[in-house]
Amino acid sequence: MAADKLMDFDKALELFEPVLGFEVHVELNTETKMFSDAPNPANDAHHGAEPNTLVAPVDMGLPGALPVVNATAVRSSISLGLALGCSIAESSRFARKNYFYPDLGKNYQISQYDEPIAYEGSVEVELEDGTLVTIPVERAHMEEDAGKLTHMGGATGRIQGAEYSLVDYNRAGVPLVEIVTKPIFGAEHRAPEYAKAYVAAIRDIVRALGISEARLERGNLRCDANVSLRPRGQEKLGTRTETKNVNSMRSVERAVRYEIQRQAQILADGGTITQETRHWHEDTGVTSPGRPKSDADDYRYFPEPDLMPVEPSRDLIEELRAALPEQPVARRRRLKADWGFTDLEFQDVRNGGLVEVVEATIAAGASPASARKWWTGEITRIANAQESDAASLVEPANVAALQKLVDDGTLTDKLARQVLEGVIAGEGTPQQVVDARGLAVVSDDGALLAAIDEAFAAQPDVLAKIKDGKVQAAGAVIGAVMKAMKGQADAARVRELILERAAQ
User: Fold this and answer.
1) Could you tell me the CATH number of the domain that includes residue 479?
2) What total of structural domains would you count in the chain?
3) Closest C-alpha among 502, 496, 494, 503 to residue 459
4) In a domain, 291, yes or no
5) Within this chain, do residues 286 and 343 fall inside the same structural domain, yes or no?
6) Are residues 232 and 101 in the same domain?
7) Has residue 193 been placed in a domain?
């Protein structure tokens, strides 16, 4: 496949106005699936299940198997709609979306079409510099996820060139909420940043609600990014593409930028944009053609005959509204003020996805400054080296306990880093690692004085210099003592004892 020609990003924005739209799919973490009693793989109790072990007749599309709506999924969907500022429909219903799904045994998807459960809302998102932007939401509707195909025998892992494909029905029927924005105007040069900030806002909202793990790398949260360009001064919208397979915040940002540059070059060369799905390739940072994008009427929607309309009571809606958590933007601003962080300090925490773990560490007794130091410093460094998520490496309570050992003088910062490595390696709590490895600071002045005397004996000229008032010479003795103590000494206390010895 020939490489796409790309226009310079700034040049593209001189010639064309970008118009954005996002479709975000959220996997709900209910105990069971949307229309069956099979365990839900998006629930943490069922992670890592073997293929085709979390299935029921409904998920397989077996004859005579009838769907039943998951009431918890409906409640979660209403809560999400309310958090998005949407109106909740007095009555909504499911429809059959007829399309050939090799990973849905029914060959159709149960979704909502013209009667979504939530409609007409907006989301306030915060860009990296603190600018607030309102993203209009058209609808949020309930549906079921499809299974997962694994293509075997090809060089790329894609269906093209594969010898055969395997299907795992575990994901088939997982409850989904699809959030669809209205066209987004005015993003201009910040269009890629809009994309990243919006997906981050949705992630923060669903996590705050507790209805999804919202892990992009696991597919709990998936974003399809729609991008179109129109020449400056033109009112008619351009033809859009829908980029799929985007599984990180950074990738959403990069995919939007790429499509703007690609489409701009095609239009500038006199070509036309094909309305199609495109696939994002994380390894190469490019999009590639998928299938021509169908309009809604091509799917042949019709009302699902086996399910009654969903008609939540006003009392239920108001109950769920009253239980809504603080909006993420407001919460972040409150936490930043409470913790006394600068804009850059809080940005480091937020961009690392560490707000929740820093908050939990502070709640466990650590100071805001020390919590931020550990999570954005050593823990993030280890996570990057292991190519893992920092928040998954260590419990906030253990980070707070580690800092307490430092504050109490049991550990130096250097020793604390060794203890942290032990905790991450599964050796136990910080105290257990200290005990097992013998890493506590030597607090016995007698042992320290003995080491100081040995160092003076080996460097008699240093003692003379200190007695003459050249106290900086003590550094050589401190180094020798720390080496003798294998780093398990408080350097400040060693310095005090050296000066006391020299004054005698």
Assistant:
1) 1.10.10.410
2) 3
3) 502
4) yes
5) no
6) yes
7) yes
Same domain, 201 and 292: yes
- Residue 412 has what pLDDT? 78
Res 492: pLDDT: 63
Residue ranges of the chain whose pLDDT lies below 50: 444
- Of the candidates 400, 397, 398, which has an alpha carbon nearest to the alpha carbon of residue 424? 398
**Residue 160 within a domain:** yes
Nearest Cα to Cα of residue 28 among 176, 154, 149 = 176
Question: Which tokens belong to 302?
Answer: 């019709």
Distances in Å between the alpha carbon of 246 and those of 99, 378, 447? 22, 29, 59
pLDDT at 467: 58
d(CA 396, CA 365): 10
- The β-bridge relationship of strands 164-168 and 276-281 is unpaired
**Domain, as residue range, for 477:** 445-503
Is 234 in the same domain as 95?
Answer: yes
**Is 311 within a domain?**
no
**What is the distance of C-alpha 209 from the center of its chain?**
15
Q: What is the pLDDT of residues 430-464, one digit of tens each?
A: 999 888 877 766 554 555 566 666 666 667 666 55
- Is residue 310 within 8 Å of residue 88, measured between CB atoms? no
In terms of pTM, does the model score above 0.85? no
The alpha carbon dihedral of 243, 247, 249, 250 has a sign of: negative
Could you give the 3-state DSSP secondary structure of residue 498? helix
Residues 253 and 347 in one domain: no
Matching residue, tokens 């949020």: 140
User: CA 424, 427, 430 angle in degrees (round to 5)?
Assistant: 75
Q: Residue 308's pLDDT is what?
A: 95
